[in-house]
Design a protein that fits this description.
The protein is mainly α and 181 residues long. It is 46% helix and 9% strand. The chain contains 6 helices and 5 strands. It has helices spanning 2-10, 49-75, 92-102, 115-127, 133-137, 152-169, and strands at 19-21, 39-41, 82-83, 106-109, 142-146. The chain has a 3-stranded mixed sheet with strand order 3-4-5. A two-stranded antiparallel ribbon has the order 1-2. Helix 1 crosses helix 2 and helix 2 packs across helix 3.
């Protein structure tokens, strides 16, 4: 299924105004809303499953922006580039969308599954396989880089629509209600 979403989402130029909020068990960082539930907003008779697929990919990007914006607000540090890893990074449309929605380049490493490396590196440092952190930094190699294509206005309008959709997901359950609802 994951391999099918990219060509489907790429078959349309955008989500057609559709927003998907994946709050299946509430919204976590930075919203912290247990009362939120998943929502699809902006539906009209003109959207297709391709628009929904595109909106689902964009939701990942918007959630990333939410967290990165919160981090920047707390730290005062703005992102210059986003280095990514994990299985979803094999989706080139997702990576381009992330660059567009963040307004910064997105870079994928040659080794995209780095969880095991994250455990192996400190262990290797401890037993002398690697001499220092600089040696580990030199192990990282770029596979591909995506540059933002959207204007600031496009980015701001898409994010405004996302925030509106997120607000619509709030309050679907009473706070004390069982989570199985």
């Amino acid at each position: 299924m994951a391999a099918e979403i990219e060509p489907l989402a790429a078959s349309v130029p955008d989500s057609g105004g559709l927003c998907f909020v994946p709050a299946f068990s509430g919204l976590f960082a930075p919203h912290w809303r247990a009362d939120a539930r998943g929502a699809i907003v902006g539906l009209s008779r003109f959207q297709t499953k391709a628009h929904l697929a595109r909106a689902a990919l964009e939701a990942i990007c918007f959630q990333t922006r939410d967290v990165l914006d919160a981090m920047a607000n707390d730290s005062g540090v703005r992102l210059d580039v986003l280095k990514v890893d994990g299985g979803a990074t094999s989706n080139d449309l997702l990576m381009q969308s992330q660059a567009d929605l963040l307004g910064v380049p997105v870079v994928r490493p040659v080794v995209s599954e780095t969880t095991a490396l994250g455990a192996a590196y400190p262990a290797g440092l401890a037993v002398g396989v690697w001499n220092d952190l600089e040696t580990l930094r030199r192990q990282w190699r770029k596979d591909r880089r995506w540059e933002p294509r959207w204007s600031a206005d496009q980015r701001d309008e898409a994010y405004r629509r996302w925030r509106k959709a997120v607000e619509r997901s709030f309050g679907w359950i009473d706070v004390g209600q069982a989570t199985a609802d």
